[in-house]
Structure formats: structure tokens, C-alpha cells
Amino acid sequence: MTSIGILGAGRVGTNLARALAAAGHHVTVGLREDEKASTPPAEGGVIRYADHATTALTTDVVINATPGDSALERLTALRPELEDKILIDVSNATIDAADGLPGDLCYPGNSLAEQLQAALPGTRIVKTLNTMLFPVMTAPAALATPPTAYLSGNDEQAKKTVTALLSDLGWKHDWIEDLGDIATARAAEAMILTVPHVLRRNGFTPFAISLTR
After folding, report:
1. Helix, strand or coil, per DSSP, at residue 134
2. Alpha helix locations (H) across the chain?
3. Beta-ladder partners of 49
């Protein structure tokens, strides 16, 4: 059982909060001043609410589910609270196209995860779950073909902790692909540029960008 803080109360954060609480973890959702606690109660679990700083300070593992294009500034402001924590980054830092879907990367030739690791040297950053629509994050077995959750991070123990949490969300061991250190996150983050083209043709039907063998 892990104490987990989730920064972001949108569809991604809400979905993760309910699933992790139902799996028995202590979950706190971090709200901005303009956000309301709208997450429905989790089956078999309790979800608490706090501001971002309190959420980061009082939990052991923190998930960044805030918009990727503003996450670096937001999380850098939480450097003291995130010291010695595992930070799971599931966001994508993109610039919107005219139709509101991702059109380009905020950090071409780099990645948000790398930027976060450089800005938060005392925090163990792990990138994962950013290559799929949000329902797949907590229900990977719902897809007809096994999906892939990619992992990037410098700290091996942190990646083991994240792998265990993914297992609690229904991810089988052979569906998780460890790409290597945090620099490999730029490859996973670049995959987001495939997503808007798929969405324009097929709508928001759940899918993941997966590795098949």
C-alpha cells in the first residue's frame, strides 16, 4: 500500500485516482485554487483532496497529471515538497494545432521528463502511460491487442516501484517496456504526434501506441 498524490483533477487524474484508491492505495488529489473536488468515490477506497503543495509534501509517490505545456513551471515551484519523492510524469508537453489536438512538441529534441529531472535533481522522475488514451491507463486489458506502457527514468528502484503500481492498474509484466534512462523519454513523448492523426480518423476510441513481437 502506497501513499500516492495526484496533481491534476481532470480526466486523467480522476481516472488514476479512482483506480489506485480501489486498489487499496492512499490517494490524495491535488487541486488548484480554481478546481473543485469532483472525483466520484472510489469503490473500496478513499480519495482525499488538498492543494498541490500539501499533496506533494504528504505523499510518497506523486503523479503529474497536469497539462504538460505548463507542468515544468508548476512542478519546479514544488521543488522542496518533491525532494526525495518519486514523480511519475504521464503528461505530454505539446502545442495545440488549430483544432485543439496536439500539433507539435514543446521540447523538440528533448522532453518534458528530461526538463523536469534537470529542474528537480532531488526527485526521481519516471515517464510512463503517456502513449495512450486515458481509459487505457487503468484498463489495459480492455483492448483487443495487448498495449505497451513504456518506462523511462534514471533510478532503477523508482522504476520498480512504478512497475508495481502499473501492475495494480492491470498491466502485465510483459506489457511494460523499460526503455532506459530519462533521455529515452523523448522517444516516448514524440509518439504523441501520431495520436491526433488517429483521433481525426477514428474519434476517441481507446487505443495505445504499442510494441508487438
Report:
1. helix
2. 11-22, 52-58, 68-76, 79-82, 112-119, 134-138, 156-168, 185-190, 195-202
3. 29
The three cell numbers locating residue 116: 523536469
Classify strands 86-89 and 94-96 as parallel, antiparallel or unpaired: unpaired
CATH number for region 3-202: 3.40.50.720
How many CB atoms lie under 10 A from the CB of residue 134? Answer: 19
How much is the average pLDDT of 155-162?
98
pTM for the model stands at 0.94
Q: Which residues of 21-38 are buried (b: 16+ CB within 10 A; e: fewer)?
A: bbbebbbbbbbeeebeee
- Phi and psi (nearest 5°) for 102? -55, 130
- Tell me whether residue 41 is exposed, middle or buried, using C-beta atoms within 10 angstroms of its C-beta: 0 to 12, 13 to 18, 19 or more: exposed
- Residue 34 has a pLDDT of 61
Q: What is the mean pLDDT of the chain?
A: 93
Asked if pLDDT for residue 45 goes beyond 90, the answer is no
Cell 497536469 -> residue: 66
Of the chain, the end-to-end C-alpha distance in Å amounts to 33
Question: 170 falls in which pLDDT band (50, 70, 90)?
Answer: very high
Report, as an integer, the average pLDDT of 114-128.
98
